[in-house]
Amino acid sequence: MDITFPISHFPIQFAKLRKYTTVAIIATFVFMPKKKTVLVAPLHWGLGHAARCIPIIRALLEHNFNVLLASDGSALLLLQKEFPELESLELPSYNITYPEKGSHFKWKMLLKLPQIQRTISAEKKIVKQLVAEGKIHGIISDNRFGVRNVSIPSVFMTHQLNVLTGSTSYFSSKIHQKIIKKFDSCWVPDSDDVVLNLSGKLGHLKQKTFPVEYIGILSRMKKKEVLITIDILILISGPEPQRTLFEDKMKETFKETEKNILMVCGVVEKEQKWQDFENIKTVNYMASEELESTINKSEIVISRSGYTTIMDLSMLEKKAFFIPTPGQYEQEYLAKRLKNLKIVPSCTQEKFNLENLNKVAFYKGLKTVSQKPVNFSELFSLFQGE
Fold first, then answer.
1. Which residues of the chain have pLDDT under 50?
2. CA 20 to 30 Å from 300, out of 55, 146, 186, 355?
3. 3-state secondary structure of 179
4. Are 44 and 73 spatial neighbours (Cβ–Cβ below 8 Å)?
5. Residue 57 near residue 40, CB atoms below 8 Å
6. In what order do the strands lie in the sheet with 298-303?
7. pTM score, two decimals?
8. Model confidence over 166-189: pLDDT tens digits?
């Protein structure tokens, strides 16, 4: 049996429907939780800390967070170029530089401690004001000691739970761990496997006295099967004056070779600049997408043994040769460890020559230590609370 309704009945029902729909829409906007803003603040010590924050920032945006960028120098400039749509602020600089003689590095850092402490105090004041004004609701600090606040979730990200400083490593590690304990969580960008990992004893403690979360390998890069067109890619990085000394050494070494050589100088500026030096093509910097493509189509990569570089090259499964920054115990340790594991050969900056590259063929090359992707949803749940 068919059931029919009078036509005059429908306008009344539609009017009610429009009324209820309007109320529902208004209620949705009124009661919808506002986006939370997370402050992401990498240390300006070369470009490595800023570079490894890029996948973190991308993931935050994908998970419906706002992001406020904070750093100084070329690290801040790199993030501004990668995310021009995001708000940013300049933090006080730690002004970390290297002496020309690596053996003087530890003592130079000791002399800088009063200035570093002043920078930490200034960071705390800036963050306190941001929290008071309700501008941020969470913090991810990549090795910036003063970027934290007890009123909001504060994360410290580092691959150095142990800080190597030669004969004073025990004391420097304890001081660093004491600082980490002041944060709500510590993220280590590495595998939790005590054998198959990239950071070795830097990121793995024998006994943990605070919560540590191993978040997996962080990289802005993805491996792609492409035609190899670059014989040798040289990645220059790090604070001055060692950055320039490294660049000069590479130019002198490779200026008369017949190889196809490209040098990325690690100097972030407003405009990209390509130049030729003898037979070497040079460029001041590359954004992430272009750098990813360039590394993928390179046969061998020569670079510092910085941890972010190691993560990137592992993700891309590249053959490499490492020249650690003179006097930087962390890079010297990482290079020596990978050399002993027959993964990547290395030598000091002073001893490097063309013949060293012949050793690359006898090493396995970098591979990903874990195929497990970073669980960003789980990590970011820390910032979802009221």
1. 1-10, 12, 14-15, 17, 20, 23-31
2. 55
3. helix
4. yes
5. yes
6. 274-277, 280-283, 261-264, 230-235, 298-303, 319-322
7. 0.87
8. 889 999 999 999 999 999 999 999
